Amino acid sequence: RPPASKEAVARLPKQRVTEELIRELGGSDVVCTVCRESLSVGDELQRLPCGHLFHPPCLAPWLGQHNSCPICRHELPTDDMAYESRKVKEREEAEAEAGRRNAVSHNEFLYI
Question: What is the pTM of this model?
């Protein structure tokens, strides 16, 4: 997989850690899953579209090599047009296949 688009990475929202955020994330033992350091009030974090949070200096090298979240593998856009085209084609083929599987065959009856 290619790296994440630099533009997509630049648009990722940043936020500061607050007491409330630490509570929302499960308490005082919350860590950045990349560096494994505890999150402290005032730390800057970057939020991926999937919702996972990381220290920006921890996330940048990962996204420089991968286009996905280090935790759940949710993909970000890339600058690789061939890769993006292939993803669209694969998604369309999967949707078409799902439609074929759900279609009524010639010897089935559909009662409404």
Answer: 0.73
